[in-house]
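Hey, resending since the last one bounced:
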Amino acid sequence: MLCEYCPKGSGGRVQTPPADMVVPKIAGEWVVWVRAAAGRVETSGRVLPVKPDADCVMSFGRRVFEGSPKRGLHAEMDCLQQARTFGLPLETGEFTDAASGCCLICASALAAVGIRRVPAVDPDPDACMSWHAPAFLFEDPLLCVGLMGDRAAHLWLRHLNAPVRRQLRGALTGATTRLLAGRWE
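The structure tokens again:
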């Protein structure tokens, strides 16, 4: 895939675009991908009963994790982060409890790791506000493509180096959630 920052002929160098120019482009591409997230997962159409201390409970094989936004991530992403910390295969994740439907970006992230069944997807873009994801979703090339789509992941991974990506991750997720909600400043 070529973009305006890729070399046009043989022997060219890949350009590093200014961050203030590339973040809106990536966010715009990511929003298009996220809007189709509901089509990439199956839903049961109902919310499951939940434990009092958790907004989401997911099992990964025999391990069960309780997710809560108290740790800075949406509950589903908190469960993913915990499972990855233990080295468990993320695609084996199953919901056992969920207080509400997952937001569009969480649905896209769950599909990216191979979890295709979710209790419900909340189509309201405001549900995505203050969304944060585990860093590994942004750094693994396959997961990043599943999370953002080809074009956004290309710009993110190929044209921004790792320290810049770490620095801009919050700005990118903020820009994407504002775009989804129609509140771009």
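The chain has a mean pLDDT of 84.

Sorry for the duplicate.
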